[in-house]
Specification:
With 247 residues, this protein is α/β, with parallel strands linked by helices. The protein has seven helices and eleven strands. A five-stranded mixed β-barrel has the order 5-9-8-6-10. Strand 3 and strand 4 form a beta hairpin. The protein starts with 15 loop residues before the first strand and ends with a helix. It binds hypoxanthine (HPA). The site of hypoxanthine (HPA) has 11 residues, from strand 5, strand 9 and strand 10.
């Protein structure tokens, strides 16, 4: 039985899933890191693949960009296909002086300007969106084992890629400081657009989730990765995610 947005039969998708936003990245990951690969969906050109990594079945499901899009795939993966360990592998914008292009960032927590938490809890609770502790500590241990540096901390998951958070006169600026300055002061490492949905859905469904990113652009220093530069650090992130998800 397929779901609305994923053309697979139940059983065709592993309970261990990596989640890139970009369908082409999903294909690249499957082709370069997995063996015995088969593609189970191409609905809307949002591809999904199942294969083996070190003998373990792993699926790579693209999610599209942003909270609404990833939420569709999370719901169907978890509720229809029985996903239990979900690791997002994506890009983020570095926001902090300690974060540089091509760094790998692991989201211990996800703060968000999205209304999804309010949709679940009303205004009553500012629910903390957290990584699964078991996946988090395993990912850090894997990174140490393979000598791949990672930065672990809080990220901001935004609904608007083109927001005005770098404008001191923007929505939440105070005329002198930007909203990003405030986020930075509170230790936010990076900005991206999906982790809050991942952590919220995982908490509700009692499954394990983690979000790992490669820094593709640096909002502080106004620097951007070339596509070639993105690829090599992207590979470090995939290795960490795959080694973590099979444990
Ligand atoms: N903003 C939001 N999401 C992102 C960014 C960004 O600058 N870079 C990669 N994902």
């Amino acid at each position: 039985m397929a779901s609305i947005h994923i053309a697979a039969d139940v059983g065709e998708i592993s309970d261990k899933v990596l989640l890139p936003g970009d369908p082409v990245r999903a294909k690249i990951i499957a082709e370069n890191f997995l063996t015995d690969v088969h593609q189970y969906t191409a609905i809307r050109n949002i591809f999904g693949f199942t294969g083996k990594y070190k003998g373990e079945r792993v699926s790579i499901q693209a999610t599209g960009m942003g909270i609404p899009s990833i939420s569709i795939y999370l719901h169907e993966l978890i509720e229809v296909f029985g996903a239990k360990k979900l690791i997002r592998v994506g890009t983020c914008g570095g926001m902090n002086k300690d974060i540089h292009l091509r760094d790998v960032v692991i989201a211990q927590g996800s703060s968000t300007d999205s209304s999804i938490v309010k949709q679940v809890f009303g205004g009553a609770v500012n629910f903390s969106l957290l990584a699964d502790f078991d996946l988090l500590r395993k990912s850090v241990a894997v990174a140490e084992k393979f000598n791949l540096p990672v930065k672990v901390g809080n990220v901001i998951c935004t609904d608007l890629f083109y927001n005005d958070y770098d404008d001191p006169n923007g929505t939440f600026g105070d005329g002198k400081k930007t909203f990003n300055d405030k986020l930075r002061r509170h230790g936010i490492l990076a900005v991206e657009m999906e982790s809050a949905a991942l952590y919220l859905h995982a908490a509700a469904a009692k499954v394990q989730a983690l979000a790992i990113f490669t820094v593709s652009d640096d909002l502080l220093r106004k620097e951007f990765c070339t596509p070639e530069e993105r690829q090599s650090s992207f590979n470090d992130m995939i290795k960490i995610a795959l080694e973590t998800v099979i444990q």
